[in-house]
Amino acid sequence: MKKAIPLALTAMAAALVWNVAKAQSPKPPQADPDMQKVLDAHASLDPKPIEKLTPAEARKQPTPADAVKKVLSQMGKSTAPEPGVTMKTMTVAVKGGSIPVHVFTPEGTGPFPVMVYFHGGGFVIADTKVYEASPRALAKMAKAIMVSVDYRQAPEHKFPTAPEDAYAAYLWTIDHARDFNGDPTRIAVGGESAGGNLATVVSMMARDRKVQLPLHQLLVYPVVNDDMSNASYKRNANAKPLNKAMMAWFFKHYGGDPKNPYALPMKAASLKGLPPATIVAAEIDPLLTEGKQYADKLKQDGVPVAYREWSGVTHEFFGMGAVVAKAKEAEQYAADALTKAFAAKK
Predict the structure, then answer these.
(1) Can you point out the beta strands (E) in 96-232?
(2) What does the alpha-carbon distance between residue 337 and residue 157 come to, in Å, rounded to a whole number?
């Protein structure tokens, strides 16, 4: 008959195992002071865990953009959009309906080069309004028109609705650029997170369907894979404002075919023939590893790539230039890449 092990010894053993595991796990990155202010502001708004909500409930949660406004208010600064850019809303016909696009135009005479821009939100939440700071900043810095697209979202509209809407908006922009003082021969694509996915997928669709290729693709921490066991997923499993559980929730609702490169571009047999890319990455982000891997895959397939990672900042930092210095740097980095790409086509 086996002797019972005293509970105290069992607890000691468990504690020892926990401490060893904790010591072996990577130390989580620390947010820099600017970024931490935004994270603290977001936490003070009491957001519920997205992964425990329905999509309808998740769409009502406070966003990082709300946190930025709170920080601006605390600093005694205006929360109004930065001047120097005008916006008008237009409509794009898509299969089964229509979607709005928001055209951000800088000051000047034009015709301006154009970028078709796709917002983030895991294909499920958020919209152009939540991400408005990004296209506004890029329009002003790059002296280019930004066509920001409100594609239809899952789970009401599962894959491949979002990429097909994005592609339809890209074709519409080619056809209608002159209507809003844009140059149809100088069109790029870009986006953040899920929007980065859509930007590179639109580039793949244009290549595969043999239409005018975008001049450039700006990919800000793009979703390109579903490997949630990689280094950055492990290190940032509980990061804010994006964590591993949220990504699993997004993938579940999106309903993308995990073998289809239009859902997950890392699954593509080849990336040859895609336009040059600029990739922006954040240290405190589950998507960091796959962004670097995608940059490497593009390079291997002969696509020119500029890749840069910003330390001490999180997923969603891009567009926070009003309160986060490194976000301003990243916005300028992206704008410079666009300016160079557009100038080369003149």
Answers:
(1) 97-106, 112-118, 145-149, 182-192, 217-220
(2) 33
> Mean pLDDT per 10-residue run, the chain (346 residues)?
42 43 58 98 98 98 98 97 95 98 97 98 98 98 98 98 98 98 98 98 98 98 98 97 98 97 98 98 98 98 98 98 98 98 89
Spatial CB neighbours of 136, under 8 Å, sequence gap ≥ 6? 81, 82, 85, 87, 104, 146
Closest CA to 304 of 269, 340, 268: 340
CA dist., res. 66 & res. 54, Å (int): 20
Query: How distant, in Å, are the alpha carbons of 124, 245, 259 from that of 118?
Result: 13, 23, 23
- Res 345: pLDDT: 80
Residue of 134, 148, 193, 203 marked catalytic: 193
Ordered DSSP codes for 127-146: -TTTTTHHHHHHHHHHT-EE
pLDDT (0 to 100) of residue 28: 62
Q: What is the pLDDT of residue 26?
A: 57
Q: Containing H/E element for 93?
A: strand 85-94
Dihedrals phi, psi of 48, to nearest 5 degrees: -85, 155
Beta strands, E only, 224-292: 277-284
Cis peptide before 29 (omega within 30 of 0): no
- Tabulate helix, strand, coil % of the chain (nearest 5): 40, 20, 40
Backbone φ, ψ for residue 52 (5° rounding): -105, 5
Q: Is 301 a known active-site residue?
A: no
CA distances 124 to 92, 231, 241, Å, are 20, 25, 15
Rounded-to-integer distance, Cα 105 and Cα 287, Å: 31
Beta bridge partners of 147: 103, 116
- With 0.85 as the threshold, say if the pTM is over it: yes
Residue in this structure with the two tokens 């010894």, named with its chain if needed: 9
Residue 150 annotated among the catalytic residues of the structure: no
**C-beta neighbour count of 238 within 10 angstroms:** 10
Residue 216 designated active-site: no
Residue type, 288: L
